[in-house]
Amino acid sequence: MVQLKQVSLRLKSIKNIQKITKTMKMFYESSQLVKGPVDQKEKEKQPDIVADKTEDIKDDKMTKRIYVAIGRIAPVFADASAMAAAIAESGYQYDVGEIFYNKYFTPVKYELTVIPFFNKYKIETAPNMNAFDDVDQDQLECYSEWTLAALLYYVLKEGAASEQSARMSAMDNATKNADEMIKKLTLLFNRTRQAVITRELIEIISGAAALE
After folding, report:
1. Is the pTM of the predicted complex or chain greater than 0.85?
2. Residue 182 placed within a domain
3. Which has the least CB within 10 A, 17, 45, 103, 185?
4. What secondary structure letter does DSSP report for 112?
5. CATH code for the domain of 74
6. Which cellular component appears as one GO term in the record (predicted)?
7. Which residues contact 176 (CB under 8 A, 6 or more apart)?
8. pLDDT score of 32
9. How many independent structural domains does the chain possess?
10. Cβ distance 31 to 65 under 8 Å?
């Protein structure tokens, strides 16, 4: 027969785990990530540029690639600006680039999506640019850089939202699983306790009958 103490300890452990998963879900729901840009203040602080995994990628002898890793906090526009500046200062020539990112749809769904970005010449020769008068090269250069930074900021936010949503969903599922296990263990605990009580009563009655 299952020991009553073992069931009790297991039940207590699962309840503690459920408290942790509930707390983590609440944390991800109220995270700074889900707040709008108004809630964010620019800080004169450089982001964490290099992470451990990025160092491993750099050691892969892929010298023609540009690597900019973002820190583990919620992304801000300064992160996107740093990435856009790294691309601009690299001297790399391109016509059309592609950004791959996780697009957020629902708390349980996100998809790998591709969004293009263009160089200054492509923007200058775009059909809709005729709607603007007297756009000089400096303005075009500024527009090109800020467009890229805005796109990068958008995909960073989408990716971060997808990540936080996935974590929140995982904690929610873990909490539900813990709740189901708590119900099963509670039922087992009650049955085991009842069996112990019944056995003790039988022993008492048998002992009393033997004394008569």
Report:
1. no
2. yes
3. 45
4. E
5. 3.40.1380
6. proton-transporting ATP synthase complex
7. none
8. 44
9. 1
10. no
